[in-house]
Specification:
16 helices, 65% helix, protein phosphatase regulator activity
């Protein structure tokens, strides 16, 4: 169709209704609507700002009201091709869109459904304007998911990619928060999260950060790694922790030994004494036994559930091994 004819019919209402078609459960229909929307955007140059505003409205609704939208991956695919065509330096409109829309999209409950596409768009923005990476690092640490291992793995992957973008001397304000988060991941109960966090130490840029800011990083990381390397419950990860301990010692032997003398380390609570953990577990088991005795008085037919962390059964919160309670001899 001729562009002049199309302009008469492609109104704000039409664009909004077209976007609503993305919110359905049929992937083939969403893919078709994506191609249609992309062609209209490419053909109607004068309407492009209206198209972007409509997408922005959908994102804002998702962030503040709906929390779920089936067509997010497709919409972000469209945006990825749009962002690729942005001129450098970015206009203020595009910077505001990144800060006020793209960053908050990370904290949406259903972000794991579209995180791959969101990360791709974010990195395209950072390739146009690397300074925005500091805002994204701050947001990732601020919106870190709680009790959601899938999203934590995604955040770790994105964080590892994003920290390579800014200049080393500009990342200092975030170093302490970054290392505290990584230590929590490594010391946590989830094996995959701990393993993914260990991948940071294979990154040359990250090791450079570790060396440059060792006055901040060593007191945080050395005492914890030194302790959990001896009693971690997983053999393979324990070997990695022992190797990491050796790397940290080789980087600066004096700073390493000095860090071990610190008693008031913010992250030291993450590593517990093996005997103390066993004693805590005994107390918890005794409480469970007492509760079942009381329940038996109310209902004699009640069946006792399998207690966690016994010799024959090892389970944890969210079906994960709890490294702060399980003792492996």
């Amino acid at each position: 169709m001729d562009v002049k004819i199309l302009m008469k019919y492609i109104s704000k209402k039409f664009i909004h209704q077209l976007l609503e078609l993305f919110d359905n459960n049929e992937p083939r229909e969403r893919e078709y609507v994506k191609n249609l929307y992309h062609r209209l955007y490419g053909k109607l140059v004068q309407k492009r700002k209206t198209f972007r505003k409509s997408i922005s409205f959908v994102f804002q609704t998702l962030i503040h009201e709906r929390y779920s939208f089936n067509g997010m991956p497709e919409l972000l695919d469209i945006l990825a091709s749009i962002i690729s065509g942005y001129a450098v330096p970015l206009r203020e409109e595009h910077i505001d869109f990144f800060k006020n829309i793209f960053i908050p999209l990370h904290k949406v409950q259903t972000s794991h459904h579209y995180h791959e596409q969101l990360q791709r768009c974010s990195m395209l923005f950072l390739s146009k304007m690397p300074e925005l990476s500091l805002d994204l690092i701050d947001a990732l640490l601020k919106y870190w998911p709680f009790a959601n291992s899938t999203k934590e793995l995604m955040f770790l992957s994105e964080l590892l990619e994003v920290i390579e973008v800014p200049e080393m001397n500009k990342i200092q304000p975030y170093v302490e928060r970054l290392f505290k988060r990584l230590i929590k991941c490594i010391s946590g109960p989830h094996l995959q999260i701990a393993d993914r966090a260990m991948c940071f130490f294979e990154n040359e840029y990250f090791l450079g950060m570790l060396r440059q800011y060792k006055s901040i990083t060593f007191p945080l990381i050395v005492p914890v790694i030194h302790k959990i390397a001896d009693n971690h419950w997983h053999k393979i990860l324990q070997e990695s922790l022992i190797a990491l301990r050796a790397i940290l010692r080789e980087l600066d032997p004096q700073a390493y030994e000095k860090s071990l003398t610190y008693k008031n380390v913010p992250t030291l609570y993450l590593s517990k004494d093996v005997k103390k953990r066993a004693e805590e577990r005994v107390k918890v088991d005794e409480k469970w036994s007492e509760l079942y005795k009381q329940a038996k008085k109310v209902d004699p037919n009640i069946s006792q559930k399998t207690l966690p962390y016994t010799d024959k059964n090892v389970v944890g919160d969210f079906n994960r091994l709890d490294n702060t309670n399980v003792v492996f001899n």
